[in-house]
UniProtKB/TrEMBL annotation:
Organism: Prosthecomicrobium pneumaticum
Subcellular location: Membrane
Keyword Transmembrane helix set for record: yes
Topology of this chain in the membrane: Multi-pass membrane protein
Protein name: MFS family permease
PANTHER family: MFS TRANSPORTER, TRANSPORTER MFS SUPERFAMILY
């Protein structure tokens, strides 16, 4: 019998860390909102608190490749979990509004960089033959654990020491698990040194099409999740029906990314990426036609959610196939920063278009964005002479 193609704990341990990270991400957003609301502070301050968390990767991202090179991915991930644990402990020890905001910013930066660092770690640990399936499965795992986070908060409540303890326990487990995993030589750290770590600019130079896909995915995903309820209300749905639109879209994100990862391994990654962009365009264009049909609406939203999220997952797979060592860290971090930039912009420009042209601007503008992405992918991945630029379009 041939040996296992994957070092089991190196992959399973990183997947466990991704699950813990997703659980705490899903737990922390409603926890902070509810806990601060009970302190009777202004809603705009609660929104500011959430924004501090979301912008974390833009502050820490440029330094991640150098930090990975300096400390190693295992110790860096353990430190991110430990600092997040300390942020929750600070709230428990000093229940002051300033502490809540400083802790949220620190915690948000750690969670955002954990998302990127564990993604880099997993991409470096898996073998290329199974890369699509494992990366896709990690996306489904993340969505499932993120879903459990609010359920855990429902059990602990948002006040008192219990929710803080419930958050600190898995973070402590994350520290121990991260320290127990050893990277194989060349997975993330390599002997070439940090090289060019102007992260976003370097990532665009090396993988511009994939960085563009990340930006549009972040923008489209955030816009759909934020503005779909308004779209439903404009078409005569009640509040509950409008909220269900987001739930169906998110379910597609959770379920279909694993299928797309498997398809990338079987049918070819370039073809799957291009096909997914086409599906994202088609599903967005179909939404105005399906909104009046109970039979069509759920499948269209489900497919749209999977296609939009799948573009991000397929980008991660292609980056892992084409880059190693510090270049993997730099390009992956730039990819994540582009996604976060799109998420931060999110609903604002599309919301403005809705004000100007009506609610159909939501699906039409997203379809237009992904149509441009499809055209750019075709241009960027056309055959080139070898040695010009590392390519993200070659199927192994």
């Amino acid at each position: 019998m041939s040996p296992l193609p994957l070092p089991f704990w190196r992959v399973a341990g990183v997947l466990l860390l991704i699950g813990i990270e997703a659980l705490l991400f899903g737990f922390s957003y409603p926890f902070f909102s509810l806990a601060l609301e009970k302190r009777e502070i202004a809603n705009w301050l609660i929104g500011l608190n959430a924004s501090l968390a979301g912008a974390g990767i833009l502050f820490l991202g440029p330094f991640l490749p150098r930090l990975i090179d300096r400390f190693g991915v295992s110790r860096l991930v353990a430190a991110q979990f430990a600092v997040s644990l300390a942020a929750f402990a600070a709230i428990a020890l000093a229940d002051h509004l300033v502490v809540w905001f400083v802790a949220r910013f620190i915690m948000g930066a750690c969670f955002s960089s954990l998302w990127t660092t564990t993604e880099i770690w997993l991409n470096g640990a898996v073998d290329d033959r199974r890369r699509g399936r494992i990366i896709g499965a990690s996306g489904t795992l993340y969505a499932a654990c993120q879903f459990v986070g609010p359920l855990l908060l429902g059990w602990t409540g948002a006040t008192g020491p219990l929710p803080l303890a419930a958050a600190m326990l898995p973070l402590a487990v994350g520290v121990l698990v991260a320290l127990s995993i050893r990277s194989a030589a060349g997975e993330v750290e390599d002997e070439d040194g940090p090289g060019d770590t102007r992260t976003l600019a370097t990532a665009i130079r090396l993988a511009g099409a994939l960085v563009g896909a990340a930006f549009l995915t972040g923008l489209g995903e955030t816009a759909m999740q934020s503005l779909l309820p308004l779209y439903g209300l404009a078409h005569g749905l009640d509040d509950a029906g409008a909220s269900r639109l987001v739930a169906i879209f998110s379910l597609g994100e959770a379920v279909l990314v694993a299928l797309l990862g498997w398809l990338a391994d079987k049918a070819g990654r370039r073809a799957t990426l291009l096909g997914t962009a086409v599906v994202a365009v088609a599903a967005s264009l179909a939404l105005p036609l399906a909104i009046g049909s109970e039979v069509l609406l759920a499948p269209v939203l489900f497919i749209a959610g999977g296609a939009v999220s799948g573009l991000y997952t397929l980008g991660v797979v292609l980056i892992g196939a084409d880059f190693r060592g510090q270049r993997l860290a730099v390009v992956s971090t730039g990819f994540a920063m582009a996604y976060s930039a799109g998420s931060i912009l999110g609903a604002t420009p599309i919301g403005y278009l809705i004000d100007l042209a009506g609610v159909e601007a939501l699906p039409l503008s997203i379809a237009a964005g992904f149509a441009l992405l499809f055209a750019f992918l075709l241009w960027q991945t056309r055959p080139r002479p070898r040695g010009i630029i590392p390519r993200a379009d070659v199927d192994p």
